[in-house]
Fold this protein.
Amino acid sequence: MTTTDVQLQGSSTRLGGLDRSRLGALLPVAVFDIAGPVAVYYVLRAAGTADVTALIVSGILPAIGVAISVSRHRRIDAIGLLALLGIVAGTSAGLVSHSARLVLMEGSVPTAVFGLTCLGSLLTSRPLMYRIGLQARGEDTAGGRRIRALWAQPSGQHAFRVITLVWGVTFLAEAAIRVLIVETVSGGNALLMVKLMPYVVLVGMVRWLAFYTRRLRDEARLPSTGAAPSASSG
């Protein structure tokens, strides 16, 4: 999980997908989470900086991204806090152990924690993705009222639980693959792969979410009309 995932994941919990304004969040992703850190790493390595030092310094940009997000929104949510703690943990582990692998694994920790939190929340009255969606939109906004109205229906509760389950399993799988990449790929290639991976996963999850919610709407439409889909347009 990366710093700008905080905004993207919150927006993707809406039952419907991303609009163009959401895609504007991809610009800071490129600067602070992918291209920037990778460029800093290669520049420092070309200048003769040690691998661990270059990785630690490249982590400054994602931390700046978190700080800008907090300054803009005047708050930091649980996901943002986990991302920041991951950066701190990776940096600390690198400084103590001088291990590049431990620095590269900084994203695996919050990703795994988030996945486990998703699964654990299924044992509570309200799953995590419902809470995140409501928090992202605000309880007193039109979007928040729609989410609460959906949750009031048994089908809506089931949908949020399925979404939370899929996100939890996916993030645990992502964390495991991150560890595998770090253990088998070296240096800048590993850095690039672990930086790109969260967004590849996110795009796949958003596409799945759009497919899943579209199927739910189609299933709900037939019982409500009691007719074929073509007859409902008249």
